[in-house]
Prior knowledge:
Layout: H1 3-43, E1 46-50, E2 67-79, E3 82-98, E4 104-124, E5 128-131, H2 134-143, H3 152-157, E6 158-161, H4 165-171, H5 174-182, E7 188-200, H6 205-220, H7 224-231
Antiparallel strand pairs: 1-2, 2-3, 3-4, 4-7, 5-6, 5-7
Amino acid sequence: MAFGGMIFVLFGGFLLLVVAIGVLGILSAKKRREAFQALAAQRGWAYAERDDRWVDAFDGAPFGLGHNRRADNVIQGRWSDRTFVAFDYVYYTTETSTDAEGHTTHREVSHTYGVVAVDAGASFPALEVTPEGFFTRMIGRLTNRDIELESEDFNRAFTVTCPDRKFASDVLHPRMMEFLLAHREAAFRFDRRHVLVVRPGQADIPEIEARLTLADQLLDQVPEFVWREARGA
């Protein structure tokens, strides 16, 4: 086979591979939507393929980043007597690169996060707890944003930020810290009336249910006097 013919065959094979990957992606997304629809129907929840009302409903990263933001596969319902919403939050950024010859190209890159938000039934200060890393710990100390608590094990494991240090200390009592140390992936934050659990990537049904359970357990461990203060009782 001539060199030109080989190039043509290779190029054709590459195109077929790209098309096949695209088709598999479409089929996978369709199967996922159908699974969510079936789950919502079974549980008496509401499902929407897209509902961008949730794009601006919450504060902090990843919300407000990039452009062309959207909320896909939105499920709303009740979990353990609390209302919730779960969805895929997607936004895009434009990446620019320049090759050795000085040619500049731009491409759109999508970023997806799985969001679970449970309505706490009361409004709380913006407490955020995230797994600790060297850089987040260093930045937190430099900016005086990382709140240190009584447990050094907890301080090493998590970064805590909150405008109200007393509230953070009240919520993150010893039993709560023990619970979080046993669930070190348990990043969460209070956003007014909601407790949010946000992770990079899409979440499948078992992951969503696990995050709902986590949010419920967190709220159940908030002391009663904190609830009374939040409700103005």
